[in-house]
Structures are given as structure tokens and as C-alpha cells.
Amino acid sequence: MPDRAECVRPAGVTPRGLLWRQPSEQWLFSGIYGLVLASAMVAALDATGEEADPGADALWVLITALASSAAHGYAHVIAQRASADGEATTSRLRSVLAEWPLVATVLPTVGVLLAAVAGWWSEATAVDAALLFNTVALFGLGAWAARTAGQGWPSSCRAGGLDMLIGLVIILMNSVIH
Fold this sequence. Notes:
With 178 residues, the chain is mostly helical. It has 7 helices and no strands.
């Protein structure tokens, strides 16, 4: 079994086991990006005075995450192509697929919106729940990143709190706009 250092490859790409051997750095980057994206999308789609359509909102959050993930992965491919021989390789495909955490982190938001479609709660409650969940998740990912970097609990909580501020700003802006 290879040790951890052998599993970590440049640009978040591993030759085998892409989903479980991916460095936490790539997961954290894409995860935080996905949470912020989901929060901003759900806040923007929560329009005052319009007929609520949480199903369409869920679809747009998912489509936006897929498009952002593909665009970010493809940007890595372009950068690799510019710096290498220009041939398409499986490592370039892996660079695109390595962006899966971005999509994975929007799925709770999509699920909360789909619960509103099912009638479990109103769209406004779903938006509030999604924003709260994403804000708490931002704290968790920020604290986890600091712990992974070897920080103690107090500084990890401060780092998580700073990441959580992004979610709080989105919540504040959503309140001010609506």
C-alpha cells in the first residue's frame, strides 16, 4: 500500500482511485467554492414578489455547479496544454473529473430545495435552511483545512469563523436585497 505522500499528485490528479485518493487540498478548494456558489445561487433565485419555483431553482443550482466544475477543470486542461506538448491525455480528463467536490457540495442545497417541491416546507424556509447549512459547512471546511495544516483547535476555529463570514455576508445581502 503506498504511503500518503505517494498518493498526492500535482493539480489534484491521481492515477487510480480518483474519488478516494484525492488530496484534501483539492477537495477543500472545490468544496468551499461549491458552498459559496450554492449560497449565492439560492439567494439570487429567491426573488421577492415572484411565484416560488423551488424545482427550477434546484435545477439552476445544479446546472450552474456542473458548468462551473467543467469550466474550472477545463481551465486546468488549457493550462496543461499550454505548458506541455499539447496532446490530450487521461491526466487531463482526470483534471476535469477532479472538480467533483464542487458539484457534491451543492447537493444538500439541491436536496433542500427539492424538499420544498415535495411540500415539506415553503421555498422561503428551504432558502433559509440552505443558507444556514452552507454557512455551517463553510465553518466546518475552514476549520478542517486549518486542522489539516497542523493548526490547533483555537486557530482552526478562527479560520472556520473567517470562512463562515462568507456565508454570513451572503445571508446579510439576501436580507438587505429582499
